[in-house]
Amino acid sequence: MSSLAVDYARQNYPRFLDELKALLRIPSVSTLPEHKGDCRHAAEVLGAELTRIGMEHARLIETAGHPLVYADWLHAAGKPTVLVYGHYDVQPPDPLDEWLSPPFEPTERDGNLYGRGADDDKGQVYSHVKALESLLGANGKLPLNVRVLLEGEEEVGGEGISRYVASKPAELKADFALVSDTELFAPDLPTLCVGLRGMIYTELEVRGAKTDLHSGMYGGAAPNPFIAVAQILAKLKDEDGHVLIPGFYDDIIPPSPEELAAWKSLPFDEEQYRIAEVGSRTLVGEAGYSVLERTWARPTVDVHGIPGGFTGAGAKTVIPAKAVAKVSMRLVPGMTTTKAFALYKSYVEKIAPAGVDVEVRLISAGDPCLIPVDNPYVRAATLALHEVWGKDTVFIRSGGSIPIVGDFDRHLGIPSVMMGFGLPDDNIHAPNEKYRLKNFALGIESIIRFLEEAGG
Amino acid sequence: MSSLAVDYARQNYPRFLDELKALLRIPSVSTLPEHKGDCRHAAEVLGAELTRIGMEHARLIETAGHPLVYADWLHAAGKPTVLVYGHYDVQPPDPLDEWLSPPFEPTERDGNLYGRGADDDKGQVYSHVKALESLLGANGKLPLNVRVLLEGEEEVGGEGISRYVASKPAELKADFALVSDTELFAPDLPTLCVGLRGMIYTELEVRGAKTDLHSGMYGGAAPNPFIAVAQILAKLKDEDGHVLIPGFYDDIIPPSPEELAAWKSLPFDEEQYRIAEVGSRTLVGEAGYSVLERTWARPTVDVHGIPGGFTGAGAKTVIPAKAVAKVSMRLVPGMTTTKAFALYKSYVEKIAPAGVDVEVRLISAGDPCLIPVDNPYVRAATLALHEVWGKDTVFIRSGGSIPIVGDFDRHLGIPSVMMGFGLPDDNIHAPNEKYRLKNFALGIESIIRFLEEAGG
To answer: Which residues of A are the active-site residues?
Structure first.
């Protein structure tokens, strides 16, 4: 691999790591109002660093929440333009007492860097910045046009960036996006994520009596919204995990035989997954589908909580006036959020038991997406990854949703290359989040080589 | 009606009412630690008043919580002994802003006395004290032997008195109990409550994965405890309100044809009840049973809340590791708490869906009870009530549970006469609690005449 930029990265790696540690020390927890200043500080640090390495027009874009960071370098005439996405905000560190080293004091241990945001997503964002520095530092220019767009609200729903992207600003005109917020399927296995499930998140409210009633006096005559909500939820999915909403599965585009065959060859053991990751008595879900199919390519329904009623210790004999179930559905390619919600809503209204009123509310929605793998950017990525990691890239999907990928597709009309270097055991959103030091180094090299290949 | 004691009560009624107001000004809210002193103060005031009117051996009996008040007068040789029960603690007054006059500043309005505890149970307790004063003041003696036992924890579970009664102290030896914590079925309709439903209150815990999981990553493979708990709850009761636990109904002793016929003649309109009291779209429950049968003489299952999981605003995509449903069952005569719990527990364990562990915990239990109406005390009560109210007494049941009645039966072997003078719209446990002034006056006269009749 002959790349001056890769040489530059290797020579400057110790400094890159020190700089990442400084970024990790900023507690930019987006959900906590007391860290509002820290979020802005992280944005300012990144903006200043982008200017320092030679990117242009670096600025903060204000939103109703935390600011976006924008910068560009657009001097590669005739070359494609990449939109580089990442986020500088992090999850809260709780529970604090489970951290072996302080969440905002990055600590090296066993070949890993521990700290909140080390993987998700500062470690990955900083890989991009340092790849750009390496290219500019080694060559005085970039191999293609680059726009950088970082957000500070990914962990709280990403409303600011979503609205900004929906406004289709000229500033975001690009040929493809590079999103580094995913992971390798297994250590040292170069991975591209090419599919995401969509989601509708809803509230299902069931109302019975006009006010809370005493269950002694009224039990047996007054409707109980918690029993009604249970009756409804029990009819959403049968005990084999099959969703019972009529028409729910109608539009699904199943994975191709080639994709299914590729998944079968991935290093994945269902029993090991059950024991190490889930820890339940058995796994559940639709018969006839593997775990990877069930979590990547099949829609499902989950319930997250049922607020209302009496939740304290001990006994309170109340028939609550209402119950609200937080219900979400994961959707797969072919399905749309609009149709799924309409089918769900009319089904719930139809099966609601006597005596109660139901209301179904949509809280948030994101369409599923499937990235075509036969484009030059994916080919450039696999070439670069093979060079850096010495192995063929595996194409996986994710059961989760990255709404920005759908936004880029829908509003900007561009595909995303989801090239991430996290690992499944990096404890994102949990105590002792880590990022493998090797992945930080090889991630930078992978991005350098990818941008060089994508620039042709 | 020629009773010196009734004359005494009528002459002293204005003072009785002033004294009740003073008692109502003591905010003896048993559940709030900051009112611990107020609870003791109320107990001391009642103990001192019992001594002042001529009762003997008045003293506070300490418990782990608020003290009991005891007093007796045992000089009616050859006469039966009555154990008079009531409670001096009250519910919290929240929500305060819905009160038209301050909860602890008793206020007369529209023929009612408004204030927390006016009905439940200070107004009723004080009727007993003033009936005893009237009898002692007019005659220098009581027509039968009297023991008074008041508690200060009725609104928080009544553990202290329950333990004390279970210890079967010689101090409580009596022939019957007089419990004034119930209500008239309708205004001016003399009423005795002769049956109570029992209850088991349980927690049903369902555990899936070892920790909370991301519903995107794991949805479709990891068990969802909220869906599992919904599936279980949906199988406890069908949509017609019929409980599906095998054997649940086996031991029920149905009301006699006479009792059922009497209920049919009560002034009760189901549609009016639905609109005014429940306010739901329809009433629910087992087909073929009237509302009074369903709430008085049929067992049922209610769910009070399902703590756990995500209950905040907005969306959090979590598959919670566990869910806990607060489930209670009302039991009717013939059923026992022990058997009902055992049937429920083994049924839940049998129907639990794959992938989850279930645990069923008993939180509290009280057996149902049915008071025989063919005893001299009930006859004395109906005679007294007819004299005071000019009407025949109706015998009703209550769907609720008054555990002390079961304790008196089980531990002391005595029946209870449940003669109360509240009204269905007295707003007990709610803002603007009231007690009808007429009922305070006639309640005292009813108790006087009842004790005179019971003394033969």
So the answer is: 89, 154
Query: How far, in Å, CA of B23 to CA of B34, rounded?
Result: 18
Contact list in A for residue B208 (CB cut-off 8 A) is 280
- The CA radius of gyration of chain B, in Å to the nearest whole number, is 24
d(CA A69, CA A171): 12
Tell me what the mean pLDDT of segment B401-406 comes to: 88
On the 0-12 / 13-18 / 19+ scale of CB atoms within 10 A, A313 is exposed
| CA dist B410 → A106, A211, B413 (Å) | 66, 35, 6
**A177 vs A55: CA distance, rounded Å:** 17
Residue A75, pLDDT score: 98
A431 Cα distance to chain centroid: 18
Residue with tokens 């927890």: A29
Q: What is the largest CA-CA distance in chain B?
A: 82
* Tokens at A261, concatenated: 């065959």
Q: Flag if A311 and B305 touch (Cβ within 8 Å).
A: yes
B356 vs chain A: nearest CA distance in angstroms? 6
CA distance linking residue B207 with residue B272, whole number of Å: 43
Say if residue B1's pLDDT is above 70.
no
Tokens 């999915």 — which residue? A237
CA angle, corner B19, sides to B16 and B22, nearest 5? 155
State residue B140's pLDDT score. 97
Tell me the sheet residues that pair with B301. Answer: B329
Give how far A173 is from chain B: nearest CA, Å.
Answer: 30
Element at A394 (helix H, strand E): strand A394-398
Which pair of tokens denotes residue B148?
């008074």
Paired with B398 in beta bridges are B196
Query: B298 and A220 in contact by Cβ < 8 A?
Result: yes
User: Between chains, do A355 and B281 touch, taking CB under 8 Å as contact?
Assistant: yes
Residue among A191, A120, A178, A107 nearest A442 (CA): A191
Task: Note whether A195 and A370 are within 8 A (CB).
Answer: yes
Tokens 């063929």, residue? A392
Task: Specify whether the CB–CB gap between A393 and A382 falls below 8 A.
Answer: yes
Predicted pLDDT of residue A1? 57
Does position B237 have pLDDT exceeding 90, yes or no?
A: yes
For chain A, list the domains and their CATH numbers.
Answer: 4-196+368-454 (3.40.630.10), 198-252+299-366 (3.30.70.360)
Let me know the angle formed at the C-alpha of B330 by B86 and B242, rounded to the nearest 5 degrees. Answer: 155
The Cα–Cα gap between A358 and A23 comes to 48
* Confidence check: pLDDT of B210 > 60: yes
How high is the mean pLDDT in each 10-residue block of chain A (456 residues)?
A: 91 98 97 95 98 98 97 98 97 90 98 97 98 98 98 91 96 96 95 95 96 92 97 95 97 95 95 94 95 97 94 86 96 96 98 96 91 91 97 95 90 95 91 97 98 95
| Global model pTM greater than 0.90 | no
Identify residue B75 by its one-letter amino acid code: H
CB B177 within 8 A of CB B165: no
- Assigned token pair, A396: 């996986």
B285: left (phi over 0), alpha (psi -120 to 50) or beta: left
* Closest by Cα among B213, B230, B226, B217 to B308: B226
Selected residue of A280, A286, A335, A348 to mutate for chain B interface (largest B Cβ count, 10 A):
A280
State the number of CA atoms in the 13 A half-sphere of B443 facing the CB: 34
